[in-house]
Here is the input.
Amino acid sequence: MTNELMRMLELHRQGFNCSQILLALGLESRGEDNPGLIRSMTGLGGGLGFSGKTCGALTGGVCLLSLYAGRGTPEEKEHDEFLLMVDELVQWFEGEIGQAYGGINCGDILGEDLAEKIVSPRCSSIVIETYNKVKEIMLTHGVGLAGEKDD
Here is the structure.
């Protein structure tokens, strides 16, 4: 079992949702801690506040790409291929997760478990797959795992 997988499971046991876990891993890879950012990700779990809409692993994955390749200050510029990276993640998620579960909404993926606000074991798998896909996309586009851009 990889260190990342062990850390994901630890965060899950601590009650963090899919989006929070993805951003926590991203921050930890950068050697950063930002409870406010993790707190803000709470609303994405369960498909936008357990409304069953777009899966929090997908929205969290887009936020993770944004953490590494987006713009955070007036002086910064987002990565030239940022929107392409987001599109790649969305296309992958629709093709892999959407096909497997009949859609990309949490309601499609969790079914009855959503009403009980139960996080299914399939969520862990989706979070791991999404995290790995985000890392693959970043590397393909020259974004280092610690946030440095390979110009």
